């Protein structure tokens, strides 16, 4: 059975990326092809996206007055993705990022910008492209969360809907005064709609309206049912019962491949893992680190409280004193950025810091560092540890969410059974993190033990193969109901 899906997302790799959402939205369509599922992906026409549009791209829909200005949908296939781009300059032609300006402040009209994306998704789902109607609409995160809401509150026939929460912390909550501008019926201003403690809740509405809700790991799906992890939505999520499922993310193993990666100094496989030393030397040069045999621990992340990077900054001096070095790539909280820059100033040849994000650099870090640190306080799935597994950059992660689902701790039993793929710690405190770093360094000093962990990590399947099959089964179960 051939099945069609409309995916609606605010960012899609390789067209635009700020986080893991883009990687998922970019890679899942290709992984679903082997299951007889064709995906068309709708995203906003940000300047960087429009710059790559073929001048001959077909306009498949237009409206002269769409959320305050003219809009059209362009269709083309790029990078193997069947792409639909919502070109609405009054909403998306901005000089900053997709969600905020150069000053880091959210755009004041974000509610309308992403309501428009959701409304466009609903219109496409109902045949606005001249008759093409998907069997399933799959909306991602709060920016696309109103797509199932518009469909649920429409009198027209609609496809089945899936809504995926990539991070419950970002909910898209806006003042109630925006509701009249959304084009929803009055009945949507209710507990069964978008009303959320007197305001408009985009994510809340999507959770309620979708036929099925997924999140990006089984453990996170359980954590968000608790008052501690539910971010105020645990009651609603518990009410969804068996409509909530956790499906762990995969990665695009053609993009993230140490065997073929064009941006690293030396390609390698699990059998030739010792060739990583060339990448390690290149990384030392790139970050001005002293050349030595000790391990390099790395961070590639948003530098935020959620990610636990304040804890790494706190123990940076101890990491150096234990004989390791540290590489940090990322941006975020100014205090955490400052703490890492101060650590670099204290240890300029032992700690390297790059404020900002660079995709090729992240590949080089994964290929050259010995371990990747992901000490998140909560983590829906996490992709950084999956890149680490793929590249033999041994993950050290906290025991939460998708980190717990994807990394096997190198405890005595796991090492004896030769299944360990990294190091897992908890609770998320500096003491527990430092103890895990100590265990990692002990393993590193035992070459045979370290190579076993490293090669087991590289053998772990981080592709979309298993997860795409679960999404395919979910789609078909919805259609069979």
UniProtKB/TrEMBL annotation:
EC numbers on record: 2.4.1.21
Organism: Antarcticirhabdus aurantiaca
Broadest EC class assigned to this enzyme: transferase
Domain of life: Bacteria
Protein's recorded name: Glycogen synthase GlgA
Keywords annotated in UniProt: Glycosyltransferase, Transferase
């Amino acid at each position: 059975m051939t099945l069609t899906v409309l995916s609606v997302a605010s960012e899609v790799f390789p067209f635009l990326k700020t986080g893991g959402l883009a990687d998922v939205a970019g890679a899942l369509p290709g992984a679903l092809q082997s299951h007889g599922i064709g995906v068309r992906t709708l995203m906003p026409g940000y300047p960087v996206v429009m710059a790559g549009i073929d001048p001959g791209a077909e306009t498949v829909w237009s409206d002269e007055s769409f959320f305050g200005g003219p809009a059209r949908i362009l269709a083309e296939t790029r990078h193997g993705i069947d792409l639909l781009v919502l070109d609405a300059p009054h909403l998306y032609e901005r000089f900053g990022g997709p969600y905020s300006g150069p000053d880091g402040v959210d755009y004041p009209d974000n509610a309308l910008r992403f309501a428009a994306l959701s409304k466009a998704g609903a219109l496409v789902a109902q045949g606005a492209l001249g008759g093409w109607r998907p069997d399933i609409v799959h909306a991602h995160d709060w920016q696309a969360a109103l797509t199932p809401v518009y469909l649920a509150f429409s009198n027209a026939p609609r496809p089945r809907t899936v809504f995926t929460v990539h991070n419950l912390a970002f909910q898209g909550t806006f003042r109630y005064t925006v509701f009249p501008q959304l084009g929803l019926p009055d009945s949507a201003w209710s507990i069964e709609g978008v009303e959320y403690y007197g305001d408009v809740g985009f994510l809340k509405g999507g959770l309620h309206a979708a036929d099925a809700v997924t999140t990006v790991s089984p453990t996170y799906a359980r954590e968000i049912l608790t008052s501690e992890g539910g971010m105020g939505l645990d009651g609603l999520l518990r009410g969804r019962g068996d409509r909530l499922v956790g499906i762990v993310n995969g990665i695009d193993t053609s993009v993230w491949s140490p065997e073929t990666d064009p941006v690293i100094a030396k390609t390698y496989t699990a059998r030739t893992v010792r060739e990583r030393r060339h990448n390690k030397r290149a990384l030392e040069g790139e970050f001005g680190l002293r050349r030595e045999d000790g391990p390099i621990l790395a961070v590639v992340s948003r530098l935020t409280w959620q990610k636990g990077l304040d804890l790494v900054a706190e123990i940076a001096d101890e990491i150096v004193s234990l004989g390791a070095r540290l590489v940090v790539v990322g941006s975020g909280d100014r205090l955490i950025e400052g703490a890492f820059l101060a650590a670099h100033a204290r240890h300029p040849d032992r700690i390297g810091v790059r404020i900002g994000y660079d995709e090729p650099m992240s590949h080089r870090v994964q290929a050259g560092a010995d371990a990747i640190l992901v000490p998140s306080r909560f983590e829906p799935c996490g992709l950084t540890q999956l890149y680490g597994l793929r590249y033999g950059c041994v993950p050290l992660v906290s025991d939460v969410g998708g980190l717990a689902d994807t990394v096997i701790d190198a405890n005595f039993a796991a090492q004896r059974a030769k299944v360990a793929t990294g190091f897992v710690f908890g609770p998320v405190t500096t003491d527990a993190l430092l103890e895990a770093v100590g265990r990692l360094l002990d393993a590193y000093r035992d070459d045979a033990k370290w190579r076993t962990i490293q090669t087991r990590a590289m053998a772990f399947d981080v592709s979309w193969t298993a997860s795409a099959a679960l999404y395919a089964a979910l789609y078909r179960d919805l259609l069979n109901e």
